[in-house]
Amino acid sequence: MNSRDIRASFLDYFERHDHRVVASAPLVPHDDRTLLFTNAGMVPFKSFFLGEEEPPSRRAVSVQKCMRVSGKHNDLENVGPSHRHHTFFEMLGNFSFGDYFKAEAIRYAWELVTEGWGIEPSRLFATVFEEDDEAADLWKAISGLQPERVLRCGAKENFWAMGDTGPCGPCSEIFVDVDPEKPPVDWAEGSESGRYLEIWNLVFMQFERRADGELEPLPNPSIDTGAGLERIAAVLQGVESNYDSDLFRPILGATADLAGVAYGTVPKSDVAMRVVADHLRAVSFLLADGVVPSNEGRGYVLRRILRRAVRHGMSLGFEDPFLGKLLPVVSEVMGSVYPELVQAQAASAVSLATEETKFLETLAAGSRQVQVAIEKARAAESGRLDGQSVFRLYDTFGLPLEIIREIAEEEQIGLDETGFNVALNEQRARSRAAAGGAHKLLGDAERLLFAAVEGETVFSGYQQLALSEVPVLALASSEGESAQGAERLTEGQDGIAVFPKTPFYAEAGGQLGDRGRLRWSGGEAEVVDVQKEKGVTFHVLKVTDGELATGDSVNAEVDSAWRKATQRNHTATHLLHAALRHVLGEGVRQAGSLVAPDRLRFDFTFGRPLKPAELAAIEEIVNEWILEAEVLEITTDREFEEAVSAGAMALFGEKYTDRVRTVAIPPLVRAENERVESLELCGGCHVANTGEIGLFVVTSERAVASGVRRLEARTGEGARELAVERARLLQAAARALSVTEEHLPEEVVALAGRQRELEREVSKLRVKMVSRSDNEGSEVEIEGVKVMVREVPSAPANEIRNMADVLKARIGSGVVVLGSREAGKVHLVAAVSADLVDRVHAGKLAGAIAAKVGGRGGGKAEFAQAGGKEPDQLPNALECVPDLVREQLVSSGVET
Ligand code: ATP
Ligand code: MG
Asked: Ligand 1 atom 16: the closest Cα is on which residue?
């Protein structure tokens, strides 16, 4: 049976049993903000199961396009090594919306599998939820399976739930022995090794889980089933791997041809080819369903899959973009069932080529470096990639850790991830130190304390700024660059403390750590920095009074002024981010931020300086939003995927656990069609109401790297201080010039103009003065040549040069040397009239004089400039000039 027949037989079978045939929904779920991608056949029917909508028919059947690359179902890393998991796959499913239940679902599945598809009952197993006696009995009765072939499994495998609340129930899975010729093995072993392969899952939606966790039986229980087409095809076609089925063989074949590498010869390139084949299908379908590569949400997932394919392609020897060339074979295999693939093919090819080229460029440089590092590691004693090398690849070549890790795994070489983290922390510590932080948190103190604590520190400080009676779990004392574990810290000592729970926010996501105090009976300490690693919060402190020992209980108090100011800046950062995207376009991406109590800094990708009008607009939007006094909506424990699909920004390279916290600010509506919105994944501290920010003032805008701009701004008290300070300066300036503030700008312009004029005037006068003064004592005759030597008042270099020209013109034929001095510096000029250039060289002369004032110089025969650093020596040096000229005259005479 080929895959077309399998799809058709499935749909036919259920259509014959009164199911309405429903076409596959797109991979991007419509009207479902809780999911990035459709990941099961039931997704398009969710509202029917939830009773929110009336289904057009109580029974349905479909072949649904699915993606399992994020959230609860993420098989991405499995793809390649596994022969059974894909990113994109097709799910065959039959559904009952409050119509038939367990008995029919089992009967239909059993009949289709054994009679319709002809799989020998002796190869089959069924699993049920351990408490579901009903299902176990039904299986035995309907299928006649031996009791030992009906297995009971725990909730992890066999209890399904739509979410934390809502429909849920036991499930039952059908497994096939893929190697029936071999002697049977233990269930645990067989299901683990893939010998017993899960092909179909029947979900019995029997309960509704209420908010209090209680299960309430549903009045009309439902059925949702899913069978992977690729697995069924492999079983029915008698091949060992999904990739040997007709769904994949042509794609693998084309890949192998293009690469010039045969499939099935070298295990490593086989994995790569499977990855390419799988991911090629995934990107083709994603592009066809309108997903565009980008740095967030669905586009980000697409980009990740595409890049993973490219990287594996490179290991097959592809050096140029190749995915686009393989698109036609996907259309060939799937196009008749999914015409959208064919329609999108040309556009998809362009998209792929652009993305691939961009990625190949960055990767080429990086991967070469990984190989070099791996070779070195193989030769080294440890035989693994040390943390420093990994860090260098990460830091210098911009390779994400996950890519380095994957390459290392393929090369079967270990990777010192702890060492990498240490290096990362050290770098952070260095940059903290470089940033001039008064207290450096030292990597070794962190390591010391990790050993002493178990579990993560609970953060209780979003609302509460103080916590009483917290026990000290561990202490370290720090001195200079090193730290040591300590039982106690005494007055005057610096150290680090760890508690099980803390109201202190540790530096993260750009927001600085809190400051504050610890108080206990008999002492006090100042908290000067708070950092966090792997969930453990490190309080950097200085004991100001008494003695602190492990086991003591302390009252922890966050400095509320510090925190509140920081919160204002944090929320303002979100407003600024949204305003930037609104004014400059959605192409703007955050590239880093700093949230301190006294200022905020925001780096973003943008190719040119901002225009004054753009800056003004951004400032205006943020301030309007502040004046709207909007109440922030902060949601914790949200599903990552759901948050991202609701529009929350996920930054490239950042890692999020499955549950996330989001910060939403109600939109600023400026006009009918102009809304500015802000929704971010963020663990930081915020004001309750935008009104608390008070005022937002941009203080600077500049470039920090190519394509990255930096904005700095202040809010609240900081902005007010700035305004007050600016007013004061303005007043002082106006008073100094005896004008009113309004007239200050024009007055300053006029003043600057007058100043320039005066300088020109003075300069002229100085030159005139020098040239008119009498030459007594300054002019001598050496060997018949007039030599004029003078010290002149300090003046700009070009002016001294003018003086020399004027004097030279006055003496007609001769040598002029001028020197001037100002704080720590000497300027020298030597000029020789044209008729003497054969005999006296101005450059050499200047050099010789300069040598006597601690300097160097030279130039042409006619004119030269030089400088020195010993003004005191100038008179002596000038006195030597006649002799130096004589030397030149004499030696030139000898030569001729
Ligand atoms: P497994 O434990 O093998 O990962 P699962 O329990 O995650 O499977 P279900 O969520 O029950 O699978 O999905 C129903 C069916 O969809 C499975 O029986 C299987 O045939 C198929 N399936 C699930 N995940 C994938 C995948 N990543 N690639 C291909 N088919 C899949
Ligand atoms: Mg799975």
From this structure: 228
